[in-house]
Task: inverse folding
């Protein structure tokens, strides 16, 4: 499954890069988690700038059928998985931790 996920991530990253949609300019495909039956795949993304998440997700969800077609053409699989796009939870968690650490450091500097 690791090899399938890695291959799908590479194919999708290249396909998204080639798409001519301004909402996808700052999108990175972080990872793919394919179901064991190969019928569904969750694609985790990150977008530069938190205000760009919703437009990027809308663009990807609108292009899901086209991206599935790219997978079908480039990857030999028993099934072409249905794609579900999600924001990578690790990225947002890291950003939250960074904001907390920054605020703690600012409080510490004010107390000095």
Result:
């Amino acid at each position: 499954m690791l090899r399938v996920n890695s291959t799908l991530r590479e194919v999708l990253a290249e396909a998204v890069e080639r798409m001519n949609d301004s909402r996808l300019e700052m999108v990175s495909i972080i990872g793919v988690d394919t179901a064991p039956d190969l019928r569904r795949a969750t694609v985790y993304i990150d977008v530069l700038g938190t205000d760009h998440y919703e437009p990027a997700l809308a663009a990807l969800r609108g292009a899901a059928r086209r991206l599935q077609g790219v997978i079908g053409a480039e990857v030999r699989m028993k099934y072409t998985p249905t794609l579900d796009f999600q924001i990578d939870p690790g990225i947002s968690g890291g950003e939250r931790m960074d904001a907390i650490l920054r605020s703690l450091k600012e409080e510490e500097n004010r107390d000095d």
